[in-house]
User: Fold this.
Amino acid sequence: MSMVIFIVGLVALVISIIVSVNFGAADLNYRDVINALFEFDGNNSSHVIIRELRFPRAIAAVCVGAALAVSGAIMQGMIRNPLADPSIMGVTAGSSFFIAIALAFMPGMTYIGLMMFSFAGAGLGAAIVFGITSLTRGGSTPVKLALAGSAIASLLSSLSTAIGIKFNVSKDISYWFVGSVSSVQPQHISFALPFILGGLLLALFLSRSISILSLGEEVARGLGQNITLVKFTGTIVVLLLTGAAVSIAGMIGFIGLVIPHIVRFLIGSDYRLIIPCSAVLGGTLLVVSDIIGRTVNIPFETPVGAITAIIGVPLFLYLARKEGSGI
Assistant:
């Protein structure tokens, strides 16, 4: 069953990429797409549009969707919290906050520099949320983490807005707030892709340990797992994937919440299967969301972050209600 889900997901991903590359203001056909990918002609405007604009946009959506979905899966398994998601836990807001600081105080910073700030901000957001909830009476619960994450995300977003207004960089910051892959350049992908691939490979390496850890820390210790090492490595994976994803597309929420739940419903709780299937379905969902964002209000584009929020908020409310008894 899991292999069927993975293969179907791959087929859907390929189809969605082809549709995404073909769709746009310029009237192209699928033959143009295939020719541009395999027989590039620099003097052909259609080929330039496909290779320089549309194909990088589709690949960026795949990378960001896969990174956020796997981040959510790792977080949910590692801390046994069904509400865990990089956007809900303040990780993406922390990344955007640090990017706002970089844009305000270090104008002209290179893309790789912004990515480093994104990684640092992701770590800050996660540290604040988990630090606050660990100090509360009764310790962390799923709803406490969600509430603290939402509060910290709102605070960091407000601070980012204030920085943008004060230092006159609101227009630059707005790209990271709305969540979009519309302005992605090929060089952005080339810088971020090694971090995303590294994070995905590390997640696959950790998958067996996460499966055991999701059963509970006592069980994991009894089976010989080094809990501290697994959690530390898992945190590095989340920060790598989330930081790289935010540096490409900004704050896109709920991919990491929706996809792991769908995958667990379909194939069970083995993270050796959940992680690769989450990567494929996460990439597919974001590519499809980007296509929807370009079609619902033609000729204008709806940010992909708004589309994923429409999909994810109902599930979040359902899960929050279900877990509410643990607050």
